[in-house]
Each structure stands twice: as structure tokens, then as C-alpha cells.
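User: Let's play a game. I give you a shape written as C-alpha cells, and you guess the letters that built it. Ready? Here's round one.
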């Protein structure tokens, strides 16, 4: 019997009124795999993460974590019914999410932000939660900032607290939604260093990012999206050297030149295409 993916989405569709933001997306991530999701703004990347985490349940399709379908539960008689609120909270606790806007509690210290979920959601004693919280802050290089409030932390430090908070809950999968997009350029590196360390430890991660160099270095796989669909899903080394889809190539051509260490991908033969076809 094969091991189920750490997380999988099948036929994920998300509609907001007449607009289809996510259009029948299939994605599966194995345990220990790092997948970076790339694509232009408005392509559905962040919506995909919100559906996978069930922060926004999809309009259609299903999400499974370790083989268990989110939002559903099986009764003792074998029937499958919508999950209770308590069951859904338990299911979602298997997934950690790091947002671009930090989402820290301003009235709690860095340590308080990390431990609050341990106490309120997992029901752990405050002394045990404090020990774990200090360990998580140390892991992201903020052991000396445990008693600092968010207003006294830089954007990079706040994002590292958010990562420590997610790690403290011991999730099976970590989802990152453009974690560096709200940071000053000088602060991006300290957050990416933490994420690279997590990747080296084979933490299961799905990362929506515009940091192309990070994706090339840390990802096992690249998922490239456009128009609410997955255009290409390929190993990272192949995606950045010989992308299979012309749309992927055009995206890389416009973004890769700003980053060092990435070679120009092999250009497809487009001699038979009109000028209009070359436009993004």
C-alpha cells in the first residue's frame, strides 16, 4: 500500500461571484518535499494556499492531509458527514500557515505570540508552552527577543516570530504565502535563511513566492500557475533550465535576469508564432 501524500488537492475550484479564481487544480506534495509556487500576480497562488489550509474552503474539489479529507469525518457506522467544528479545528491544526502580513497579536510579546496557540488550541500547560516557545524562538535566531512586543521588532523579526509560532504547533505541512513580500529588501535575507534551514531539514513546505533565487536553491519542485490553473509542474532544476511550456519560459525570461546564479533557459522554437503570440 502506497503512502498517501502529505497534502493533496483534487479538482480545487474557487469562485467569487462570476469570477473563477481557481479552476480545477490538482496538486500533491510528498512528505519532506519543498514545492515553490510561482506565477504572475492574480494567478491564483494565494487562493490555492487558502483552499489547501481550509481557511477558505473551495467551491468544489477536496483536500486530503495524510489521506484524511479536510472538512469531512467518518462516523462509526462508516458514513461520511461534514466535520464538526471541533474536528475541523483538529484537522487544520495539522497545517501551519505563515502569512505575508505577520498577523501577530500586538498586545503579546514574541514569546506570548508563539505560546498562545499551544495553550489555547493544544491545551498545554503554560510552563511547558513557555519551554517550547523559547526553543522555537531560538531556532529562528530570536532567543534574545522573547520579551519584545511586535512594535519593537523589525519586519524580518516579526516574520521570524510568525514562523516560530507555526513551528511550535508541530504541523505536518507548512504553507508560506509570500512571506517576504511585505519586508524591506535588506530584511528579506534573514527570513529566507530560516526557510532554507527548514528545507534542508526536509520540512514539508509549499511556498508561494516571488523570490526566484530562493525557489531555485531550496525547492524540489516548481508549480507554475497562470489564470487560476497549473501551467507546469516540474522538478526545480528542469524548470529553470528547460521549461516545457512556452508560458513558463516567458515568465522566466522576464524575471530571471534580476537574479544572480540563474542561467537563461533554453528558448523554445517560436519561429512560426506571430508577434501577438509572444506577448505576455
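Assistant: Ready! My guess for every position:
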Amino acid at each position: 500500500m502506497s503512502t498517501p501524500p502529505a497534502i493533496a488537492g483534487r479538482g480545487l475550484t474557487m469562485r467569487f461571484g462570476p469570477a473563477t479564481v481557481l479552476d480545477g487544480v490538482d496538486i500533491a506534495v510528498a512528505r519532506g518535499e519543498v514545492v515553490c509556487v510561482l506565477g504572475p500576480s492574480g494567478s491564483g497562488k494565494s487562493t490555492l494556499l487558502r483552499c489547501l489550509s481550509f481557511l477558505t474552503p473551495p467551491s468544489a474539489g477536496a483536500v486530503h492531509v495524510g489521506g484524511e479529507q479536510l472538512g469531512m469525518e467518518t462516523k462509526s457506522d462508516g458514513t461520511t458527514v461534514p466535520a464538526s467544528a471541533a474536528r475541523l479545528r483538529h484537522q487544520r491544526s495539522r497545517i501551519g500557515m505563515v502569512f505575508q502580513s505577520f498577523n501577530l497579536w500586538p498586545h503579546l510579546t514574541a514569546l506570548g505570540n508563539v505560546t498562545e496557540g499551544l495553550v489555547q488550541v493544544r491545551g498545554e500547560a503554560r510552563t511547558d508552552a513557555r519551554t517550547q516557545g523559547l526553543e522555537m524562538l531560538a531556532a529562528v535566531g530570536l532567543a534574545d527577543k522573547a520579551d519584545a512586543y511586535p512594535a519593537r521588532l523589525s519586519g524580518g523579526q516579526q516574520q521570524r516570530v510568525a514562523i516560530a509560532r507555526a513551528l511550535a504547533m508541530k504541523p505536518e505541512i507548512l504553507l508560506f504565502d509570500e512571506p517576504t513580500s511585505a519586508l524591506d529588501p535588506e530584511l528579506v535575507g534573514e527570513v529566507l535563511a530560516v526557510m532554507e534551514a527548514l528545507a534542508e531539514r526536509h520540512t514539508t513546505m509549499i511556498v508561494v513566492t516571488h523570490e526566484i533565487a530562493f525557489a531555485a536553491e531550496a525547492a524540489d519542485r516548481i508549480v507554475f500557475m497562470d489564470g487560476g490553473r497549473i501551467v507546469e509542474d516540474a522538478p526545480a532544476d528542469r524548470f529553470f533550465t528547460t521549461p516545457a511550456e512556452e508560458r513558463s519560459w516567458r515568465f522566466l525570461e522576464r524575471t530571471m535576469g534580476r537574479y544572480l546564479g540563474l542561467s537563461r533557459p533554453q528558448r523554445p522554437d517560436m519561429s512560426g508564432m506571430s508577434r501577438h503570440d509572444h506577448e505576455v
